[in-house]
Amino acid sequence: MAASAARAGLRVVDGLEEASLALVDLTQPAGGPALRALLDSPRAASLTLVVLVEPGETGFTTAEALKPADILTLPVATHELAWRLRRAAARHREREEQARSQEDLSLLLELTAEYAETSDVEALLHGVTRRLAEKLDIARATLVMLGRNADEGIIVAASDDPALKDLRIELSRYPEIREVMRTGKPVVMQEASTHPLLGDVERRAVAARGIHAIAALPLPIRGQVRGVLLVRAAGTRRTFTTREIDFLTTVAHATAVALRNASVLQSVRGQTEAEKTARLAAEEQAASFKPYQLFFAHVSEGVAILDDKACVLSLNPSGAAMLDLPAPDARGRHLHQVTQPVDENVLMELVTTASHGEARSGVDVEVCTAAGRRLTLSMSAAPMRDEDAATILSFRDVTDARKLEYELRQTKDFLERLIDSSVDAIIAADLKGRIILFNKGAEALCGYTAQEALGGLSVHQLYPPGVAKRIMAMLRGPEHGGKGRLSLTREELMHRSGERVPVSMTASLVYEGGREVFSVGIFTDLRARMQLERKLSDVETRLEESEKSAVIVALAGTAAHELNQPLTSVMGYAELLKRRLKEEDFAWKPVDIIYREAERMAEIVRKIGKITRYETKSYMGAQQILDLDKATSHED
User: Fold this and answer.
1) Rounded CA separation 276/209 (Å)
2) Long-range contacts of the stretch 55-61 (C-beta < 8 A, 24+)
């Protein structure tokens, strides 16, 4: 058993006081008496039992009635016993943790019940600190509330002294409390005498008083740290476990709620007589407002009359219908309770301003009605009579209007982004020529920024002289796409630099109730397109010339081929005639002329055969003929 316990991380002890597990060997004759003695001992309830029995039905039947954590049979190997003991120890720890959690829960429930039932706050707080000190076995538990001065605290209860209360302390001597105030989170110092948060003086004081650990837990009230639960461990207790810190944090929160409720209860009890007087005064005040109520009963807007504490004195039927609350149920209730605003600050600022004599109007407040509807009310508030410090609050339901405004704003933003992202220029102007829309495309096309265009630039400055008036005349006539519309046409815009920019444009007039409101035009820059057209035209021209040259070359080759044969014959016969004639003969000279002209024709035919390009020259006025010399000069 000793070897198995060592392997399981356990140790064998002599007495029951230190024991957590008990292993009983029921296979031995002395096992039964030993088990009975164990079960009769005061420690039996806190022990986890493991039994060793003979294999067989009888042994297990005997052990089953004991409800042990585990049952073993002989023979038992050392490693198996170690595993069984380790598992039993884990079960024991889980049971102890559950027991401690149950104790914490029970104490918390008891404290909560006392918070709800006890009206003696001083006795209640002392009882809380005392019971915490007893449960956690700590030296002292103290409740410290923060004073109005940031450097001052007030001890309202201490576990070790019922008479200790309203003792003022300097927080400069308590760094742990100041840290809780700063962070709003628990501060735990497990080694207080060496903790860096404490100064040298505080460390020496802690060590001298034998304090080992300190925990400071915040008491949050309405979102602010208004106090601290301070606990200190001394003597045999040296640290606080995580579970204990969580439990103390929960108690601190519950105590904070109890303190807040107690202060409210005391305030309510202390004001009973004042309330009676105030109620009578309110009834008199409500009676004085009766003529106004009769008038407000027929108003379509909601109207509420408030007293100086923003409580409702009167609510007209329209307001009651909007808030889904009968008017009598609203009377006497605070405005917050009646309207349940999403943002209390906006509503209270409106009412406070009016109570100080300044009227406010058109303030949107989101409220939640008694039926759970979410509304947006446009509220106005004004002082009713200075001597009564009364406020009149009027409101109307603008939920649908605000929703529509939001949708229109979204649509407007979308259209603006769409217009700005357009490559084409989009320009709109009113009937006086003032530009009211100038997108990014217009900036690129005209050279002006949108700020310059909207700042006083006239639409007439964007066109050549007279063009703007001509376009407006075309828009108002039916010939160019119908009245109010201008179909696609080509015009020119004036760039800031003075350059004329060719554009294709469409335009239209926008009407409102049959009346012209403004005009809008969409312009496409044609400079790149026209440059491309010019290039295409040049290519076509060159292509035509190339085709014409090819035709001429082919024709010249054909003509030269066809003319060479008859010319050769003419020249041959002319030469034969010249040889048979003498120069004195009358026919020799005509034959010689025929021969020379035939040679000249042959030269012309030779040139025609060498034509490779189309070159012309003037002939008889405007007529153009082929220039043979230039058409064949590149051959030379």
Assistant:
1) 54
2) 59/26, 59/27
Residue 520: predicted pLDDT: 92
Q: Can you give the pLDDT at residue 386?
A: 47
Question: Within a domain: residue 584?
Answer: yes
Residue 54 is part of which domain span? 1-101
Query: What is the enclosing helix (H) or strand (E) of 548?
Result: helix 527-580
Is 50 among the domain residues? yes
Residue 363 burial (C-beta neighbours within 10 Å; 0-12, 13-18, 19+): middle
List the CATH number of the domain containing 388.
Answer: 3.30.450.20
Reported for 105-112, long-range contacts at CB under 8 A and 24+ positions apart, including other chains, are: 107/131, 107/135, 108/247, 108/250, 108/251, 108/254, 111/251, 111/254, 111/255, 112/254
Stretches in the chain below the pLDDT threshold 50: 264-272, 275, 386-387, 636
Distances (CA, A) of 549 to 39, 381, 553: 129, 94, 6
Q: Which of 513, 380, 493, 328 is nearest to 426 (CA)?
A: 493
Q: Minimal CA–CA distance to 231: which of 130, 309, 303?
A: 130
pLDDT in tens, 339-389: 888 888 888 888 888 888 888 888 899 999 988 899 999 999 888 754 455
CB atoms within 10 A of CB 293: 17
Return the pLDDT at 429: 92
Amino acid at 113: A
CA 205 and chain centroid, separation: 52
Unique residue bearing structure tokens 């060498």: 610
Instruction: Supply the pTM of this predicted model.
Output: 0.36
Strand arrangement, sheet containing 425-430: 435-438, 425-430, 515-525, 500-512, 485-494
